[in-house]
Amino acid sequence: MAAFTISWLLLSGCIGEEQNKKPGQSPEVTPYRTASESPQAKQPDKPKETVPDAKPGLKIYFIDVGFGDSTLIVSDGHAILFDAGNDSSSPAIRKMLTAAGVQKLDVLALSSNAPEHTGSARAISVYYLVETVWHNGVNYSNAAYRDALSVPGAKQVAVEYGDIFDFGKGKITILNPQKSRYLLSSGPDSIAMKVEYGDFCALLFSDSEGGAASGSDAGTVAGGLDAKITSGPVGIACQVIKVGNHGSGNSASFQLLERAKPQIAIISVGPNKDARLPANALIERLKLKGISVLRTDEVGSVWLSTAGNGYEIYSDR
Fold this sequence. Notes:
By secondary structure, the chain is of the alpha/beta class. The chain has one domain (56-315): 4-Layer Sandwich (Metallo-beta-lactamase, Chain A), CATH 3.60.15.10. It has nine helices and 17 strands. Strand 13, helix 7 and strand 14 (264-267) form a beta-alpha-beta unit.
């Protein structure tokens, strides 16, 4: 893999030339309504411009939703939204969906019942038809989560470790929850996934404290989540990792990083009551492994593009 170079768009991988142009300004979308609600129902307007690099392949958009989480996966006419931010994230998510040319969502994956991951789910489902909702199979009792999960007309699917979903030329493999749920707080059972396209792959953690690190050994608490993922049959060596739980000190353990060997770590984080996020311990751990760090609170939304044999990374700022 070639060395990375800094540009206005941030980081360029080993394929293609840097594209020094800013993302298009997208118009507001028109709310999606069913035919029964409006005789003139239509899906969101197609944007005049799109995010840089409209070539066929895989695009992953790490959306700046402040203190929350929302990742858009687009490939070969398919669109998967992994989490829906907090309750004020809908405008930012809709803007990115429109810029990416998304007309409907094949999948809305809700990682857990954490409000900063599910807050705008129903608002998004008003604007975009959702075919399937993925969840972690835990019967959470809070009403807000149940409302987010109950997208009208969508099929509900409980996912677990080892499940494989093909989308066009891409593939998603579920890394968490484990088949034997922990049924504790939302973190240990939160959905994590591996996204593959050709020779490229990315690990996407959500509310999960993927490492649950403990000192220099790490990966040994919160049910030993990292130990289960690193010792499982699914390979996790990937170029990019989206760190879980907004970069908490208990995310991305040394064991996980050693096995995954990522070049880039994405942290979705914004202003929060705990000013220590992302945690210094996590940042230092990534630096020790020589991993470049991109934080949405510093660079805005981040997106990557790959044709399957390399990748390029861009950002808002």
